[in-house]
Design brief:
Chain lengths: 231, 207
């Protein structure tokens, strides 16, 4: 492994972890709304959340470019008021990864929230628990395996994100060149098979590791909850 | 008067209506499945909102549509024993038992964990997970959890229906002791005549 390759791995991990951490609250809120909420336009929200799953990633990247670009409806105020720019920055790569990971995270979390027996929540209320306490002491712990699964799926998806990222923030060494972009770049130059193989193996190990970690976490909670599986 | 209930609620096509003024002891709601017995208990517990009416227990109004009173479940101090136990699967027996006890105002607690486990014979189960309990054990834990929350009254929804004959007799003895020794007003739902004959101070037939 060359120092450049370590740098690529470090950047990939940073981008993915930041993407998942920032998406987590939003994904949970959306999952909660979709699982428990009753409001007009729920179907539309559901479709919008899942859109990145079916849209060509290059289109998602282009839409991000339009929205978060220097003259975009979101990019311009962010730059003017907060001095925040996503363009050609690792934060842009994290944003693209977050958008692409969101549907998977919402999906897993929604299923786990729907699987929580609402009658247990009723029982907790009669025992003196306020709705907030019921959420923290009953709903959240029972849904936890699914929440972990969602976070880990999101992480794995972020590690693999390619199309939206390269469209939105390009392929800049040290800034936006994550593992898939580096593999793509290396493939463009003949004689780079060894580097491609090393990065590909790392990608497989990271993805596999993420899935195994989440499964083990869920199993450790197993004796307590009923589910205990994410795979 | 322990239970004063006068409620109406439409659930789909069915209309549930009940007028009841129960004395002390155990008041049984008796009737076939689907007559809305559980819905009545849910309305008293605050888990289901009546369309109109009034619910008072031992002099305290819990719900009154005319006066705009609707106490949330956590402030009604109901000890609700469900048909299926509804123990929290992610908490050991001890933490199930103490769930309501910890939330209760200390002044409202009238039983300690030790007293409850002695009374119900469940001291040896404290470190077990709910899914490892037999039906009878789970039901006794559920009763203990309800008693420990410091309730003013008990709601019991067919607490014997999932048990075999031997366990039934045991839990019935337990319920008689709650009725006679602890003197808690109990609203008890059942579709079993023998059960009702043995336990009830008053019977209300539904359906």
């Amino acid at each position: 492994m060359t120092p450049e390759e370590w740098e690529i791995i470090r950047l990939s991990l940073k981008v993915s972890i930041v993407a998942v951490l920032f998406t987590l609250p939003l994904a949970f809120a959306l999952a909660w709304l979709l699982a428990r909420g009753r409001f007009p336009g729920k179907l539309l929200l559901d479709a919008l959340v899942h859109l990145p799953l079916v849209l060509p990633p290059v289109v998602t990247g282009w839409l991000l470019l339009l929205a978060f670009g220097p003259n975009g409806p979101i990019g311009r105020p962010l730059a003017e008021w907060l001095g925040l720019s996503f363009m050609f920055r690792w934060t842009g790569a994290a944003l693209a990864a977050a958008i692409m990971a969101l549907p998977l995270m919402v999906r897993a979390m929604r299923l786990s929230i729907e699987a929580v027996d609402a009658r247990l929540e009723g029982a907790a209320r009669t025992l003196g628990a306020s709705p907030a306490r019921v959420f923290l002491s009953i709903t959240l712990p029972l849904a936890m395996p699914g929440l972990l699964a969602g976070a880990v799926l999101g992480f794995a998806r972020s590690i693999g994100e390619f199309g939206a990222t390269i469209t939105f923030v390009s392929n800049i060494p040290g800034e936006t060149r994550t593992i898939p972009l580096a593999i793509y770049g290396a493939l463009q130059i003949p004689g780079n098979e060894a580097a491609v193989t090393r990065l590909a193996v790392i990608a497989v190990l990271l993805s596999l590791g993420a899935l195994l970690v989440s499964e083990l976490l869920a199993r450790r909670m197993g004796p307590a909850g009923k589910g205990g599986h994410v795979l | 008067m322990s239970f004063e209930i006068d409620v109406e609620r439409r659930l789909g096509e069915a209309r549930i209506a009940l007028h009841l003024a129960g004395g002390p002891g155990l008041t049984a709601l008796f009737g076939p499945s689907g007559a809305g017995k559980s819905s009545i208990l849910n309305m008293v517990a605050g888990l289901l909102r009546p369309d109109r009416g009034r619910i008072a227990v031992a002099g305290e109004t819990l719900f009154d549509s005319a006066a705009g009173i609707d106490l949330p479940p956590e402030r009604r101090r109901a000890g609700y024993v469900f048909q299926d136990g509804r123990l929290f699967p992610h908490r050991r027996v001890r933490d199930n038992l103490l769930y309501g006890w910890r939330l209760a105002d200390p002044a409202h607690r009238w039983m300690s964990l030790g007293e409850a486990t002695d009374f119900l014979g469940i001291a040896h189960l404290l470190d077990r997970w709910p899914r490892t309990l037999s039906g009878g054990e789970a039901q006794r834990v559920a009763i203990g959890r309800a008693l420990l929350s410091g309730p003013r009254f008990l709601l019991m929804d067919e607490p014997l229906s999932s048990l075999d004959m031997a366990r039934r007799a045991e839990i019935m003895t337990m319920i008689e002791r709650i009725r006679d020794d602890l003197r808690l007003p109990i609203l008890y739902v059942s579709h079993d005549r023998a059960e009702v004959d043995r336990l009830a101070s008053a019977v209300v037939v539904l359906g």
